[in-house]
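Just scan my protein:

. . .
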Amino acid sequence: MPALLALIILFSGGAFVSSAKADSCWWHNGSLMRLVASGNQRWFYYERPRAGLAVQPGTLLFNGTNRNGYYVGTARVFSKYCPGTPLAYAVEGPVSPDQLGVFMRGNREIHNRCRPTGRWTTDNLEFRYSHRC
């Protein structure tokens, strides 16, 4: 396997070619996010979290698929009271016609210090294109 990888690198001019090479940066609630794409798979990671968030750069916020301009997947909510145990919930929504925005929505249970409250809320996630990362 290492020999095959060396051949791929050699014949690609020394650069590793990946379908995720078109990484892009997006704004979400004051944080800079990195969108990684591979085929129809999509991941939004925190690149530069805004101050006060209970996340570090590289933390996964969303993973899912792009189905003809419509994202479907799993988002996460983070709490300083529950480090390492984000609350995952289903989200979905469209990519804007100009391809510069992604708007997802999902319902999740409200937690109080890591405990479910029995109450629910609707989260709206908005991502706005910033630049190529």
